[in-house]
Fold this sequence. Notes:
By secondary structure, the chain is an all-alpha fold. It has helices at about 5-30, 40-60, 65-85, 90-110, 110-135, 140, 145, 155-165, 170-195, 200-220, 225-260, 265-300, 305-325.
Amino acid sequence: MSDDLLKSYRFRLEREGSWHELDALIARAERHGLGSLDADELARTPALYRACMSSLSVARSISLDANLLAYLESLCLRAYFVVYGVRASLGQVLARFFRRDFPAAVRRTRWPIALAAFLLLAGIATGWAVTAKEPAWFEAFVSSGMAQGRTPDASREELAETIFDKPEAADQLTAFATFLFANNARVGMLCFALGAVFGVPVVLLLFYNGLAIGAICAAFAGKDLTMEFLAWLAIHGTTELTAIVLCGGAGFHLAGAMINPGRRTRLAALRQKGRTATTLVVGAVVMLFAAALLEGLGRQLVIDTTARIAVGCTLFVLWLAYFACAGRPAWRGPRNGE
C-alpha cells in the first residue's frame, strides 16, 4: 500500500464515525425539520459540524483523494444550512419586514423620497393652475379612462354625483378596487424600474401623474367642489400617493447608483442599493393594495365630507409616525456614570 493510500485510510478510520453521525443527523433534519432532533442531538450537531470542517481543512492540506474532498465539502455545506440557516417562519419574516425593514428603508432613502414628493406636488400645482386658467389643457393631462366623466365640461351635479354616488353592488366595488390597484402598481413599478436609466424618466413620470391629479382638482374647483373633492381623494389618496412617492424614491435611489457609484462599478452599486429599493417597492405595493380597498370600499361607505377628511388625515399621520418610529432600537436610558 502506498503512503498516500495509507494516509487516506488512517484519516478515514479516525474520523469517519463522526462524519456518518453528522450525516445521519443532517439528513433527518432535512427531511423532518429540527424538531425531529432531541436536545442532546441538537447540542451535538454544531460540534460535529466544526469537527467536519476541521477534517475538510486537513484533507485539503494533505491533498487526499478528490472523492473524499467532495464528500466532506457537501456534508459541511448541508450542515451549515442546518446549523446556521434561517429558521424563521413566514409569519416571522413578514413581521420583521413591516416592523423593521420597511420603515428603516424609508428612513435611509428620505432624500430621494423627498425629491419624488416634490416632483409629484409640483406636477399637481402646475396641472391645477394651468387647467384653471385654460380648461382646454385638461384633455392633454388626463386620459378619458382616468377622467371617467370628471371633466371641466361636466355640470356641478354630474361631478358631485361621482363623489357621493354609492354603488349598490359589492362586485362593482371589488372590480373598481382591482382596477385601481393594477393601475397604481404599474405606475409604481415603472418609477422603480426606470430609476436605472439615470432617473430622468422617473422625473417625467412623477410630474406627469401630478399634472393629471392637478387637472382633475381644477375641474372640481371650477364647480365649487374643492373641499368635497379633496375629502373624496384624501380617504384613499394619502395612502396611494405616499406609496407612489415611495416607488419614485426607490427609482431615484437606483439612479444615484448610476450617477455616482463611487469607487465601485455601477453594477456593484446597483446591486447594493437595489436591496433597499426593492424593500421600498414591496412595502409600497402593500400600501397600494390597502389604498385600492379604501378606494373601492372605504370611501363609498364614508360619504360625509368631514369624516372623509378626518380619515384621510389620520391615515397620513399614522403613516408618517410609522415611517419615523417603527424599527428603531429602544432607548434604554443613560448608562451608569453617564
